[in-house]
Amino acid sequence: MHKAKSIVRISRDAFRYLSSFAGEQIIEQYAGDVNPVIEVALVNGRYQLNAESVNYSYGPLHDAFRKYFRLDPPELDSGDQVLILGFGAGSVAVILREELGLQQHITGVELDGVVLQVGREHFNIERLPALSIIKDDALTFVDSCPQNYQLIIVDLYLDRLVPPQFEKETFIRSLQRLLTPGGKVVFNKFAGTPALEAEATALEKRFAEVFSGTCTFRIRVNKRAPNLMITGVK
Fold this sequence. Notes:
234 residues, 2 domains, alpha/beta
């Protein structure tokens, strides 16, 4: 009986894998603590975490960050600290640790506990060494954090939108305060509509007012809806 069940499971998984090249295969769906819909999906043979209408981890967003880091590799020393705000299921941490080979300690902050559960159960995120995961609101964490970081990645989304409090000048200045001298903030801003492009332009201006050096990388994983990686250096 056990052998028969194993054969059925293997056949089912093989069918899902092959079918994923023709269309998205939903593996499991959850109601998140913050996000109404959280899905684990198989797309083109690759597992990814999605919200209702956008990818959150390990899909096109993973590819966008991968392309960005190729253009602008992190410059870190052995004792430096990395902070990821909007940790998701750990996609950026995997890029830093396993694709770029960085050994620096990473702190990940994520508000949605269901997303963290999915990261552990489906993506084995706890395999990564030197990783601390904190369930908290990014605004609360940043306001009270005593630590300084050489690299801060900001990927804070509720479905396809950045909550407005994270684009205000007060939050940008709080990020600058957390940086060590020469440290960098990387802010992921999806720019798929004229309204979002206008928001990105306003965000770029705030970065220029706060940081001594700024640059924007337009990452075209999706040509119609690029990701803008807006960076600021202390």
